[in-house]
């Protein structure tokens, strides 16, 4: 039986990062896409970003994509929501930092939960799996057969984290993705989304993630450990970042030394994973 792990106000929390993205926007496979290329412009190692609910224009996402490009990857950040990402204002309105959240009264928490439900519920229905997964699969196939593209990896955050895991189900040679990296995935079914994994997957999970608690993390670890000795074996790694909440790898507090360190380590985790798996 699969355990469904939902979404909450944590999906709407976080901080905006300052900086100007250096990539370009263009239409690829019918989708508006942010593209950030490495210095040598090589597509030998390509990465597709599966964004969180704030979409492909979110500055944090684009700046992180630029970091992966600097590390030598050709990066695509497609708009899977057709211009219907949730507004950035929710970052500040829906959920305060962890130290503030812990001081909220039950009434205050109830108000925030109601606000999130009214916002996320209709949006999630509109962008449900049956609608968005064919769009995602189509984009992966478009990139897979783009001239001079060799290995393809996907990285997903929150909402996109689950679809990074689903993308790792495909084992057909020459199709799908070669590796995935899921950062604090939401809306996952355990074990349903993990049992079919056939490609290498790395996970970055928060120790204080309200959507993936210790019980859920342990279940995921057990499933992935068994896969390492399966036939064929599936490589994986799970890194838990102590004290970090849902969304930390993309939307942490850059003014906090602890949060910044976690974000930097999660970035390095992904870069090192893809350097290995896309070699």
Write structural notes for this entry.
This protein has 279 residues and is of the alpha/beta class. It is built from nine helices and ten strands. The protein has helices at residues 59-70, 90-93, 98-101, 106-126, 129-144, 159-167, 214-228, 248-251, 257-277, and strands spanning 3-4, 24-28, 31-36, 45-50, 74-78, 151-157, 179-183, 189-190, 201-206, 236-241. Residues 7-13 have low confidence and may be disordered.
Given the C-alpha coordinates, what overall shape results?
globular
Strand content: 15-25%
State the major sheet.
8 strands, mixed
Q: What is the number of domains?
A: 1
Uncertain regions: pLDDT < 50 for 5+ in a row?
A: 7-13
Domain Dienelactone hydrolase: 32-276
Protein name: Alpha/beta-hydrolase
GO molecular function: hydrolase activity
Give a quick set of tags describing it:
single chain, 279 residues, alpha/beta, Rossmann fold, 8-stranded mixed beta sheet
Short description:
The protein is of the alpha/beta class. It is built from nine helices and ten strands. The chain has one domain: Rossmann fold (3-Layer(aba) Sandwich).
Describe the secondary-structure layout:
Elements: E1 3-4, E2 24-28, E3 31-36, E4 45-50, H1 59-70, E5 74-78, H2 90-93, H3 98-101, H4 106-126, H5 129-144, E6 151-157, H6 159-167, E7 179-183, E8 189-190, E9 201-206, H7 214-228, E10 236-241, H8 248-251, H9 257-277
Parallel strand pairs: 4-5, 4-6, 6-7, 7-9, 9-10
Antiparallel strand pairs: 1-8, 2-3, 3-5
